[in-house]
Amino acid sequence: MFNSFSKKVLWLFLTLVALMSLSCRKDEVSSSAYTIAVFVPGVLEGSPTYEQMDRGVRKAAEEKGVPVITVEAGFNQGEWKDKLSALAAEGNYSLIVSSNPALSALCREVKEVFPAQQFLVLDGENKADDSQAVFAYNHKEQAFLAGVLAARASLSSLDNLSGEYKLGLIAGQTYPDMEKSIIPGYTMGMKSVDPRFELDFRVVGNWYDAAKASELADSMFRSGVDVILPIAGGANQGVVSEAKQKGKYVVWFDSAGTEQAPGVVLGSAIVRQEKAAEEMVLGLIEGTIEQGDLRMGDIISGYVLLDREEEGYLKHVPAEVQEKINFQIDQFLNGRYSLD
Ligand code: RBF
To answer: Which pLDDT tens digit goes with each residue over 262-315?
Structure first.
């Protein structure tokens, strides 16, 4: 009798253990079934928006226990579509995440061949598109902030200013967003400070050649440009070193950049891409964000801002410039100022 009772207890115990292990396995399967590939159209190092993307995706993935791989597609843009197709063809990744406005069109094309593949494009084209989830930034506002800071710095009490009302922008390449949003926003920003400001715009021709960017910066600083905004990935370093040598100035884009040369890199007009990446990936895993969803980041929503907490900015940008910038940003935040 005792024997048969303990047999029953043992049987119950074993059944419970078996059930528990089954349900554990089920859990493991459901979290490890979701996998993410980060597709970097270029290289991570030196590209602020790509570094932020990778960090944000990895944060979300860690939170959910989801594996991530990162693939660097390199600088040959002619190869990007084949490499993206190859990744989708593997069929191993629930979600492919990438970043830059050119990727929206590529993901659309690849989705036609692999309709089950999910895509998230950060810093993507600012339009709704069934083939992907998109987070797009208001780069016009972002560049406007950079233009205001560059112009105010160039009229300030900083050393070694030319008084020529010339500001620079060095881009890796030209692309629609550069022409339609960034150049107009930067120009509006500087002219809102004083209409005499003129833009000197140059193009490196790629996103890595720091020596070429340095040559361009040299010629611009010699012609009376006081401040340059580099948007050229790894090539940005050439602009910083040239500004350091000549006692001139740089305004940074996309991520906080003053730390690399305080007093030379004066401030940063940034996007909260790490936060956007984390939120979008969590939403896609949880099913609250779907293919076809478009989110916009701008000054009002807090995804586009001038980083006023950077030590290099607080310490080296003259107080009267900071005050005027604070006033202008308040106007934006109160809805009293808009670029449209
Ligand atoms: N930004 C980088 O920092 N590094 C790059 O390698 C890079 N490659 C780009 C390639 C293309 C085709 C386009 C359209 C943009 C690229 N950008 C790159 C720009 C970047 O994605 C973003 O638009 C700008 O940094 C402005 O936020």
So the answer is: 999 999 999 999 999 999 999 999 999 999 999 999 999 999 999 999 999 999
CA of 312 to the centre of ligand 1 (A): 25
161 & 291 share domain? no
Which ligand 1 atom is nearest residue 46's CA?
3
pTM: 0.91
Instruction: Answer whether residue 8 is part of any domain.
Output: no
Segment holding 161, helix H or strand E: none
On whether both 97 and 191 belong to a single domain, the answer is no
Residue to substitute in 45, 49, 79 for testing ligand 1 pocket (most ligand atoms within 8 angstroms of CB): 49
Domain count, the chain: 2
Residue with CA nearest ligand 1 atom 24:
231
Question: Is 309 found in the same domain as 224?
Answer: yes
Distance between CA atoms of 76 and 87, rounded to whole angstroms? 17
